[in-house]
């Protein structure tokens, strides 16, 4: 029975075939690990080979673990095989749905796992801390191998955190704070080292700027990151333009990744074309390298087997799907990931914000007056056209940007639920909801600005100096 698939393979889409091959491969590995009878293993292997043949016949591509079929991988020219699909890649986020990207579909397409109540409860048991409101509200919604990180942690085996920022402008906006706020919480509750990559090399390659300007932006962005409250004894922030030349271990890992990823693979994952500069094509290996502890010998005492956990927005996942595919082939553990939803632009959840558009978000340099004006003028409303209609039918929190922003920054669960009920029932008007957001954001941004003023160039230098952190490995 195992010699032929139990369904008509011709009726399956390339992605469905890819998932079946992946599932069968895992089954073969499980049978071998469990020392199943030889005939059972042989039958499972024949099934796997049959599925791989069907996959190649359908797609014209050999099956490669972790790399979905090229015609379904979203690429940076904005085209997909299915026009109604959301566009999500490291450079673009587009959807026609006013509610934003369909994250349940994205989980299926990317092959990640949903962060469910069981996992959240397990994190609470492991840390002894109430889960962060980003977890409770589904802002961090998807993961890869977080259960394995918890397995190790519960067995007294440490891990480290890695996240990053592409410094494309001097001023960051409040959406850029999301991964850093959550990473800070993770670092505190698990008490682990953190490395933060500033991809100034990437921005030089993709943007119209000089190398010097990209590095300047990196140092300025570092001040905003430090202002989030990271512990200097437990955190290393580095610029690629600076650190790459100072760390042989880092460069060795880049070269190892480069050797194991073909040009066809990187084109399929990221949508590069023949006219892209070779710097873009080689960059994914640079973002992959911090996933391996041997890139930081000064922190991990040269150890190569320390697990890495990466909190990031889901659009960065293609980099780490590639990394996870390569890791076993270069003798490294696969990094685990925690994925966040996208922070919506003020104009609505259909697109990702742009640092070049000052009205697309609230920036960390904005004054209280600017914050008030932006929210009142630009925040997309889920309210009705008239007060009478709003009182009668209520507002739509699913598309209202003010409510979306409050789900990120209003920590009081009860207060958030009260606002939702009042707005949905029509009791609370759009202007009143915007007023709550203004009163939430003004002190938050002002407090950040005060902390940033205390971050001197000398403090930045200390954070960015390769050194031993307050951990023993």
Automatic annotation (TrEMBL):
EC number: 6.1.1.2
Biological process, per Gene Ontology: tryptophanyl-tRNA aminoacylation
Top-level taxon of origin: Eukaryota
GO MF annotations in UniProt: ATP binding; tryptophan-tRNA ligase activity
Pfam families: tRNA-synt_1b, WHEP-TRS
UniProt keyword Aminoacyl-tRNA synthetase, yes or no: yes
Keywords attached to this entry: Aminoacyl-tRNA synthetase, ATP-binding, Ligase, Nucleotide-binding, Phosphoprotein, Protein biosynthesis
Family matches, as SMART domains: WHEP-TRS
Leader sequence segment: none
InterPro entries tied to this protein: aa-tRNA-synth_I_CS, aa-tRNA-synth_Ic, Rossmann-like_a/b/a_fold, Trp-tRNA-ligase, uS15_NS1_RNA-bd_sf, WHEP-TRS_dom
Entry's Gene Ontology cellular component terms: cytoplasm
All copies of domain WHEP-TRS, residue ranges: 13-69
Matching PANTHER family: TRYPTOPHAN--TRNA LIGASE, CYTOPLASMIC (PTHR10055:SF1), TRYPTOPHANYL-TRNA SYNTHETASE (PTHR10055)
Protein family per UniProt: Belongs to the class-I aminoacyl-tRNA synthetase family.
Name of the protein described by the UniProt record: Tryptophan--tRNA ligase, cytoplasmic
Native organism: Sclerurus mexicanus
Classification of source organism: Eukaryota, Metazoa, Chordata, Craniata, Vertebrata
């Amino acid at each position: 029975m195992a010699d032929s698939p139990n369904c008509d393979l011709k009726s399956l889409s390339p992605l469905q075939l890819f998932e079946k091959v992946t599932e069968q491969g895992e089954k073969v590995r499980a049978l071998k690990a469990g020392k199943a009878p030889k005939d059972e293993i042989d039958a499972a292997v024949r099934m796997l080979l049959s599925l791989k043949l069907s996959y190649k016949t359908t797609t014209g591509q050999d099956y490669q673990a972790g790399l979905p079929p090229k015609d379904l991988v979203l690429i940076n020219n904005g085209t997909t095989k299915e026009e109604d699909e959301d566009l999500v890649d490291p450079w673009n986020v587009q959807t026609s749905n006013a509610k934003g990207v369909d994250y349940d579909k994205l989980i299926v397409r990317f092959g990640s796992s949903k962060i469910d109540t069981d996992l959240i409860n397990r994190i609470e048991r492991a840390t002894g801390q109430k889960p962060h409101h980003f977890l409770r509200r589904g802002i961090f919604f998807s993961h890869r191998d977080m259960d394995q990180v918890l397995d190790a942690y519960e067995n007294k085996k440490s891990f480290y955190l890695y996240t990053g920022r592409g410094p494309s402008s001097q001023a960051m906006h409040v959406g850029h704070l999301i991964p850093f706020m959550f990473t800070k919480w993770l670092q505190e509750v698990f008490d682990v080292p953190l490395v933060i990559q500033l991809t100034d090399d990437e921005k030089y390659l993709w943007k119209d700027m000089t190398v010097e300007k990209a590095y300047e932006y990196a140092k300025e962005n570092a001040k905003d990151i430090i202002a989030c409250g990271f512990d200097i004894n437990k955190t290393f922030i580095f610029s690629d333009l600076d650190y790459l030349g100072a760390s042989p271990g880092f460069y060795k890992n880049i070269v190892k990744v480069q050797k194991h990823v073909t040009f066809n693979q990187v084109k399929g994952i990221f949508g590069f074309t023949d006219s892209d500069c070779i710097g873009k094509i080689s960059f994914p290996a640079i973002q992959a390298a911090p996933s391996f502890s041997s890139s930081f010998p000064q922190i991990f005492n040269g150890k190569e087997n320390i697990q890495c956990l990466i909190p990031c927005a889901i659009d960065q996942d293609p980099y780490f799907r590639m990394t996870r595919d390569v890791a076993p082939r270069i003798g490294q553990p696969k990094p685990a990931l925690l994925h966040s939803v996208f922070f919506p632009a003020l104009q609505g959840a259909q697109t990702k914000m742009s640092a070049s558009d000052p009205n697309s978000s609230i920036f960390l340099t904005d004054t209280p007056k600017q914050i008030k004006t932006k929210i009142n003028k630009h925040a997309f409303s889920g309210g009705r056209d008239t007060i009478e209609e709003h009182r009668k039918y209520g507002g739509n929190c699913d598309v209202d940007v003010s409510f979306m922003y409050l789900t990120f920054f209003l920590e009081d669960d009860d207060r958030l639920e009260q606002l939702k009920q009042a707005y949905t029932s029509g009791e609370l008007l759009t202007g009143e909801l915007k007023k709550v957001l203004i009163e939430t954001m003004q002190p938050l941004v002002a407090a950040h600005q005060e902390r940033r003023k205390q971050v001197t160039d000398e403090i930045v230098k200390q954070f960015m100096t390769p050194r031993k952190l307050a951990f023993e490995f």
